[in-house]
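PROTEIN DATA CARD
Card holder: MFS transporter
Chain length: 907
Origin: Aurantimonas marianensis
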Amino acid sequence: MEKAQVTDAERTRALGLSTIAFTACFAVWTIFSIIGVEIKAELGLNEFEFGLLVATPILTGSLTRLILGVWTEKYGGRIVFTTQMLLTAAATWMLTWASSYTMYLVAALGIGLAGGSFIIGVAYVSRWYDAGRQGTALGIFGAGNVGAAVTKFVAPFVMVALGWQGVAHVWAAALALMAVVFYLFAKDDPALVARRKSGAKAPSLAEQFAPLQNLQVWRFSLYYFFVFGAFVALALWMPHYLVDVYNHDIRTAGMSAAAFSLSASLFRAYGGHLSDRFGARAVMYWTFGFSLILLFMLSYPPTDYVIQGKDGPIAFSTEMGQWPFVITLFVLGFFMSLGKAAVFKHIPVYYPGHVGAVGGLVGMIGGLGGFVLPIAFGALLDLTGIYTSCFALLFVIVAISLAWMHLSIRAMERGAQGAALDELPQLPEMQEIHHANQQARTRVLDEWNPEDKTFWEDKGRRIARRNLWISIPALLLAFSVWMVWSVVVARLPAIGFDFTPGELFWLAALPGLSGATLRIFYSFMVPIFGGRLWTTLSTASLLLPAMGIGYAVQNPETPYLIFLVLALLCGFGGGNFASSMANIAFFFPKAEKGNALALNAGLGNLGVSVMQFLVPLVITAGVFGALGGQPQTMSDGGQLWMQNAGFVWVPFIIAATIAAWVGMNDIADAKASFKEQAIIFSRKHNWIMCVLYTGTFGSFIGYSAGFPLLTKLQFPDVNALQFVFLGPLVGALSRAGTGWVSDKFGGGRVTFWTFLGMIVAVLGVIFFLGIKEQPGAFWGFFASFMALFFLTGIGNASTFQMIPAIMAREIPRLMPELDGGALRRQAERESAAIIAFTSAIAAYGAFFIPKAYGTSIAMTGGPVAALWGFLGFYAICVALTWAYYTRPGGLLAHDRAGPAAPAISAA
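Structure generated from the sequence above:
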């Protein structure tokens, strides 16, 4: 498919309109850097709250870049750019309607759409230029970052005349006008026009996301995290910094900070020209090298020295004055602008068919730097009391980026010999696009047939077990972070947080809600991205809630909304289960699949118990010293380091992330698009198993989330935190240790008897709650719950053993046209997808069970009504298991270990 011929005038129009539109969007995106100072004083915000406010638009702008890039590839920049500007203008106007800090944050999320404009413009502009001129063109477009300087130059004067509300109105009106102008005068890009004429379909999501598996894409993302993310962060932070450090008024601070924004924007066009002429590698070396020097100078705090001389003490001090500071910042901005152009020089040439997805990811990570770094700046300032700590953090990021880039280049050079070394291009990553699209596949298993006994014994078992034993600790950490609120909420009132029981139950329940929802999406990620990459990314994502909790709990003035957001982010841990189970299911043969999944899930579930045992210990001591912050004083005079509930997981998460990337594998024939996996939604047994697994795993995770707070409320004289970890421990170990039972006797039978046992156990809980004032009632209540946890573990293993057995019988009937290897792969693919999807639905138990307790207590004064509801649900599960699977003639009536099932093997 060839592009339509375009003229220089059309190229210039596309570039000019896009640059002006991006400038307007960027001016709106950084609006809080000026009006935020007045809003801070108006609302009396502390440093953390102010940092969160100015960073919130950056979060939306960053997260939307990936999907906006994909939409631009599919629908074209003209319609996507126009729509994005109109929505942003509406959100900016509505900012003036806000009346509370919460409403300001909500409006800020809408304003953040402005930041997504960058990737729309990159995808749109790159299609008008050939590879030899794309660097310069994208550099000119990227100079639209100067919108930040426009805001700093102009907004202070508008604010003095019209108030901060006037700034919002003027900026919103200007952006809406720009949207209309762009729609009327811009044209569809030539690639989109050619595709429409040819009738070709737009690339699928799987096709667009495929390059994101390449490590160099994530390396580019780290570069952009500094050159762009730090630029945005400093643009937001500097007015506040200058007011506090140099005692400027807001107008002078805005003008001084604008010098940095100006240099970090306008010279981007020059950076594109230099990248075209000298190569992006050389420009990146200049950027990182000079940035290291400049950041070292900026990070050095004012210091007094005393030297013992021969005639007595000699005292002197060092401090960077106001104008040297502004000049140094200007020079830093210059080199950051060169780096921004150099990073995006690579993408349209290196990934010409995936500019939207790759550029969207790189832009998203860079934009997230603009969100994360202002919060980190505020946290470091609160922690150290040193204003220059923000530059010290950037110094560390640049040092890591430079080292990684240099080591990557050296590794590439060592792989070249003789004349080949002399012929290397300026862009080291662009050796004929990795030699005609040949990517290093050392971690991809091109052939994988675990049902072949010879293959399995020779090498399959060893590889599968290695992936399993890396997956287990990663999943354990995911469960620990997911359920950490179940312990934290029980101690928040003791350290000064004035939350009602209802609000506390919401905090305990929300991770379950978000985790379950994320599982629906995570269910389909492994066949799209590969198990190795997705496990690495999903494990690393746990750092956000872990570190966020560590900072938020240190200040009793932290708004409840912040805790709600952090509770939702803990759902990242819950989502990991779906992708982890789907990934491990591909590695093992049917005869060992039940035990492997039981080990992965059971020992992963153990994270709940580990968390409920470890957190009460680590919050009683300053484990991290000064780095961990000061303790909180309780109402009884004692001290707690509640922040350790989040910080304790950070080093382990980092280690597990590295282990997943280094040690895990992808299975080539396990790849599948969402469309191929979506066939499970038409399978009746998918929905039946969703109900049954909700009864087992939904009960386990829901009881784990609600057990600590329920026990504390019903038996206030008992130190519940000493015992509650035993419930998840029993459930996790029973799941890990009973997978063989289902492999031997059949998952259907085990599930049927498990639900009958759970009904009896719930009756025991109800009975002992009815006599809770009598001696020994607590121990009866506790023993009944231990039985419940034990039975949920058995049921978790048995239901997952059922799924491959069911699909082994159903696929030959439903798809008789398949045979041999195709039949086996289809059954495995659907089994993995159903396992992941049922885990997503069942995870809602983590929300509904704690919420049911809270609702029952609010309406009836006790939790018994909720327990009767659970009992009725288990009765339904008993009926479904018998009717479909274990009755005479049922699908699994004769299910035993392997031999009874129809064989599905490679041809």
